[in-house]
Design brief:
The complex is a heterodimer.
Chain A lengths: L1 H11 L1 H9 L2 E2 L9 H20 L9 H10 L4 H28 L8 H21 L6 H15 L5 H7 L8 H33 L13 E2 H26 L24 H9 L5 H22 L11 H23 L22 H12 L7 E2 L2 E2 L15 H9 L1 H4 L12 H13 L5 H5 L3 H12 L7 E2 L2 E2 L9 H4 L2 H9 L1 H4 L12 H13 L3
Antiparallel strand pairs in A: 1-2, 3-4, 5-6
Helix pairs in contact in A: 3-5, 3-10, 4-5, 5-6, 5-10, 6-9, 6-12, 7-8, 11-12, 11-13, 14-17, 14-19, 15-17, 19-23
Chain B lengths: L4 H35 L11 E5 L9 E11 L2 E13 L5 E4 L11 E3 L4 E3 L6 E2 L5 E3 L8 E7 L2 E8 L7
Antiparallel strand pairs in B: 1-10, 2-3, 3-4, 4-9, 5-6, 6-7, 7-8, 9-10
Classes of the chains: A mainly alpha, B alpha+beta.
Chain lengths: ~550, ~170
């Protein structure tokens, strides 16, 4: 081993370089407060790694982006985890970069001769935000599309430069294939090497000037970077990674429906770290809008860059930097207030959202089969039977094709289980014939491939299907190819009518579509909501 | 505050051990999912479907016919409809066999030689008998076969199965 090491060091100087890097002298006061920079670099590298993994299975065009991401989420093992790491890693990186900046600010570590280090750092913060902005579009779902529409509009408002920036973003205000290609190009081709270069410059500057000291440091012996500070940095990185990993496992990153430029009801919301800007924008209306959209953020960035020249005092003792501390507190209060206000004004519609990041085979079921899902859950069949890899094994696995008889056999079996299958300990199911029919229809459709998808059917869909069945909508309408054609088929309803139109139409069909023979329906508000949501979630 | 050197050393060793340990854990937590993600096959979306390719009654015994059909192929996140062919043979015992259209040597398209009564690959002269077995040439194993099902008069084709072993 040793001769190899010596040979390598002689030819490359690698070992000497590593030694120099690790045994750099740092002030005695260095410690836990200086770990954030290392964590930020670690998170950047993790983002590059998970980003490359995603790119291996992602097609960067509006036509394919959404489907390939769904493929990653629903069909690839660990795909959801990798996407979760990338998604939450982005948020965490912003948190850590800001914490790093606050620490440097509070300790006055930007003072002479470290002004350039600070300014490069501010540019790195802006790059981090640029990743967030460009990456937001890439899933190409409704959230991505409409969020980016707003962003490009805001950029277009910039004085003088607005139209040029908009043209650079591809297209005059409309978000389409060109915008998508440019955002993707920025996100994966331009930003990463720029970030790497600036990180290298930033670290070089930190090393050149040394870690910023505190007042008493010149009287104390210096310490080495390795191993004590390396240990502290590693602990911080480990904690950050553990939090990130748990979030990626536990917190589901939603995927909404495919971007729909004709969807007029969509209320776009930016990512949480941009919400304060979004709220600031609301404070300025009319001709003043440009102030909130461009002038204020622009001034804030300029001030941030010029901080070392604005604060020329010599005070670096953190406990005595009253002004800096109150400035940070003010910033935190302002940011929190604006963000909370934005969160409060976000309409609550999440309960009825369809999560497209999970298999959506349930959308292909007929209303009768979907009602069967509802009864299956109501009767708690899963407490004895297994369905795929879920449930118990007291009774047989219901996805096994061999146990499937015909519907008539199953209904008799539901009513008197032991008569059809001697020795069965299954209790009789107390449901009407029509309800048992639904249950049988659903069970006949079950197979190992769609079992997990069926357990994903949202509650509003099963409840909506129950309302649909109870009111015999299928005697006039068709859903997924099942039902009659007296009235219009209901697939694709969300493309033809608005929600409020449909709800009003139930109460008084003739008023909205003269000549219609549909009778009025008086539905409870809850039934109305479930039924409409169910119909709107149907595939086209 | 001079510490005895032994304690200083053990503290230093603790730092170094902990640093290696934590980095190993992080590398494993990133590396294992990455390998799983790259190497595990995607979950199959649908069971293999059967395609109808023709009428059984039109087949004459011992006279292979090349049949063309369209079937859906799952390709990553896409399902593409593509053309496929199979060499279909009615064996003397009236059972039906459908061979995959590629030579098992290097994947060239072979054809039936009526005069010689065997399948001939033009690339490297592999010759297969009517039962798909290798008669001569470099082909390492018999012709691959499709799963076959007969429903009334309809001939249905399932998945293409790789043939086992080698002969010839």
């Amino acid at each position: 081993m040793r001769p190899i090491k010596e040979w390598l060091d002689h030819r490359t100087g690698l070992q000497t370089a590593i030694r120099q890097f690790l045994y750099e002298e740092i002030p005695a006061s260095s410690g836990w407060h200086q770990v954030f920079g290392s964590v930020a670099i670690f998170l950047f590298l993790t983002q590059a790694f998970t980003g490359a993994l995603l790119a291996f299975n992602y097609a960067p065009t509006p036509g394919d982006a959404y489907n390939s991401l769904r493929y990653i989420l629903t069909e690839l093992t660990a795909g959801r985890l990798i996407r979760g790491l990338h998604h939450w890693g982005a948020s965490m990186m912003i948190v850590v970069v800001v914490l790093h900046m606050v620490q440097v600010f509070l300790y006055g570590a930007y003072k002479k001769p470290r002004e350039a280090t600070w300014m490069v750092g501010v540019v790195l913060l802006l790059l981090t935000l640029a990743y967030g902005l460009t990456g937001y579009l890439l899933p190409w779902d409704n959230r991505a599309y409409w969020g980016t529409v707003v962003t490009t509009q805001i950029a277009g408002q910039a004085p003088v430069l607005g139209p040029y920036i908009q043209r650079l973003m591809g297209g005059g205000g409309a978000v389409g294939v060109v915008t998508f290609a440019r955002f993707y190009g920025l996100h994966v081709l331009l930003l990463p090497p720029a970030t790497l270069l600036l990180i290298a410059l930033h670290v070089y500057l930190v090393r050149k000037h040394g870690v910023a000291p505190q007042p008493l440091d010149d009287q104390l012996p210096k310490q080495k970077f390795y191993p004590r500070q390396v240990f502290k940095d590693t602990v911080a990185i480990f904690v950050a990674f553990a939090i990130l990993f748990v979030m990626a496992l536990v917190a589901r990153v939603p995927l909404e429906q495919l971007a729909d430029p004709t969807d007029t009801s969509y209320v776009p919301r930016p990512e949480w770290y941009f919400l304060f800007l979004f709220q600031t924008l609301k404070l300025f209306t009319g001709p003043l809008e440009v102030v909130g959209a461009v002038v204020l953020p622009g001034l804030a960035i300029l001030t941030l860059i010029l901080v070392p020249f604005i604060d020329r005092g010599r005070m670096i003792q953190v406990t005595r930097r009253t002004f800096a501390i109150s400035f940070v507190l003010l910033g935190v209060i302002g940011w929190t207030g604006l963000t909370l206000a934005a969160v409060k004004s976000t309409p609550k519609e999440a309960a009825m959202e369809v999560d497209y990041s999970a298999p959506t085979d349930w959308m292909q079921l007929s209303p009768e089969e979907m009602a069967g899902v509802a009864y299956f859950r109501e009767e708690n069949c899963i407490s004895c039977h297994s369905v795929g890899d879920r449930g118990n094994s007291v009774g047989p696995d219901l996805t096994r094709n061999t146990i499937h008889k015909d519907a008539a056999w199953m209904i008799q079996h539901f009513k008197r289980p032991s008569a059809m299958r001697p020795g069965s300990s299954m209790p009789p199911i107390q449901l009407s014939d029509a309800q048992l029919n639904s249950l049988a229809a659903f069970l006949l459709k079950l197979n190992p491939d769609n079992a997990t998808a069926l357990s994903n059917a949202p509650d509003f869909a099963t409840e909506g299907a129950l309302v649909y069945q109870a009111n015999h909508c299928g005697s006039c309408h068709m859903v997924n190819g099942v039902g009659m054609k007296v009235g219009p088929p209901l697939n694709g309803l969300s493309k033809r009518q608005s929600r409020s139109w449909v709800e009003e139409h139930f109460a008084n069909p003739q008023k909205l579509s003269p000549g219609s023979i549909m009778p009025p329906y008086k539905l409870s508000p809850k039934d109305m909501e479930s039924l409409t949501s169910y119909l709107f979630a149907l595939p086209e | 505050m001079e510490r005895p050197p032994a304690e200083g050393m053990s503290r230093r060793n603790f730092y170094i051990g902990a640093v290696y340990g934590m980095w190993a854990a992080i590398a494993a937590a990133l590396g294992i999912p990455a390998l799983v993600y790259l190497f595990f096959p995607p979950k199959a979306r649908k069971a293999e479907e059967w395609v109808e390719i023709g009428d059984v009654t039109k087949l004459a015994p011992n006279s292979p016919v090349e049949m063309v059909f369209r079937r859906n192929r799952v390709d990553g996140w896409k399902v593409t409809s593509e053309k496929g062919t199979a060499w279909v043979v009615k064996q003397p015992d009236r059972s039906i066999v459908a061979f995959g259209p590629q030579c098992t040597h290097l994947g060239c398209a072979y054809h039936w030689e009526d005069s010689k009564n065997d399948f001939l690959c033009p690339c490297h002269s592999s010759v297969f008998g009517i039962d798909g077995r290798v008669v001569s040439g470099p082909a390492p194993r018999p012709l691959d076969r499709f799963d076959v099902k007969v429903d009334g008069n309809k001939l249905l084709l399932g998945a293409l199965r790789r043939s086992e072993g080698h002969n010839g």
